[in-house]
Specification:
single chain; 73 residues; alpha+beta; two-stranded antiparallel ribbon; 2 helices; 53% helix; 34% strand
Length: 73
């Protein structure tokens, strides 16, 4: 892969991580299992990251693109 492509990908991921600071996923847990009687419970899990990580990726992507342009010039 070219370093310009890697820089663009890093910048896009950085922007997405700034805009979306996390996501939710649901798991199903079995609470009661008594023969034919079963009860399940849905449990929400939230994965969250700091927007600073997105800023670091965005700046890193921009730097990779800038360095690539200096090498080609």
């Amino acid at each position: 892969m070219k370093s310009k492509t890697i820089g663009i990908i890093l910048a896009i991921i950085g922007i997405l991580m700034i805009v979306y600071t996390g996501f939710n996923y649901v798991t199903t847990e079995k609470v009661i299992d008594l023969g034919p009687l079963q009860m399940n419970m849905d449990k929400n899990h939230f994965v969250q990251w700091s927007p600073i990580v997105g800023v670091v990726l965005l700046v890193g992507g921009i730097l990779v693109i800038a360095i690539d342009k200096k090498k080609n010039a």
